[in-house]
Design brief:
The protein is built from seven helices and nine strands. By secondary structure, the chain is α/β, with parallel strands linked by helices.
Length: 202
């Protein structure tokens, strides 16, 4: 049900979202540096889980990575397929990826878990762990806050997480946290990112 609510909300505002945020030119330079640095250490296929308009997937592909994008919103996938015809995109849910167990080396989840209620976020994390190879890498970007709480996102309600709390969810679903990053800028919502590795002994 949550997936359908989010899909409908983003479908309704897809054109507006693409115009405002659908290119690498709109991303923060520190985010660009973090994502590309993370990807440079991934040796194998990467899934951009919740790829939106596809600009991050395309960036990874342009840098020589075997990257493909997955998103719940058909309008985003249509745009991405048209804008970046050399990259593979498909409609799909983050908690049910069309990938074999242990078949990918990295997953980029860049602000794509923010609409999962806290009680269900482990569904997506377990699915990430299923498709990642042992030792595979996950980069999660999210909104950061002092407590786990819902807030009024511009498109549909979303959740902010303390870094330690989301790190705990990753640990509980078979990941080791490698590093975390947080950024607070006056007038902007605080954001954070976690790099985690799938444990070999899952």
């Amino acid at each position: 049900m949550v997936n359908e609510v989010s899909r409908a909300a983003y479908s309704h505002r897809a054109a507006e979202y693409i115009d405002a945020l659908g290119s690498i030119a709109t991303v923060h330079p520190l985010d660009h540096r973090l994502v590309t640095s993370w990807a440079s250490q991934v040796d194998g296929p990467i899934i951009d889980a919740g790829c939106g308009p596809g600009h991050w997937t395309n960036l990874l592909a342009e840098q020589g990575h075997d990257a493909r994008g997955v998103d719940l919103v058909p309008e985003f996938v249509t745009h991405a397929t048209t804008a970046y015809p050399h990259v593979d995109f498909m409609v799909g849910s983050l908690d049910s990826l069309d990938a074999a167990p242990g078949s990918v080396a990295g997953i980029l989840s860049w602000f794509s878990l923010i609409h999962f209620p806290p009680a269900t976020v482990r569904n997506a994390l377990r699915e990430f762990g299923r498709v990642l190879e042992p030792g595979g890498s996950l980069l999660v970007g999210f909104f950061e806050g002092p407590t786990v709480e819902q807030f009024a996102h511009a498109v549909t309600p979303a959740y902010r997480w303390p870094v330690d709390d989301l790190a705990g969810e990753l640990d509980a679903t078979g990941f080791d946290v490698i590093e975390s990053h947080a950024r607070k800028v006056a007038g902007e919502r605080p954001v954070a990112a976690i790099v985690a590795r799938r444990r070999d002994d899952r």
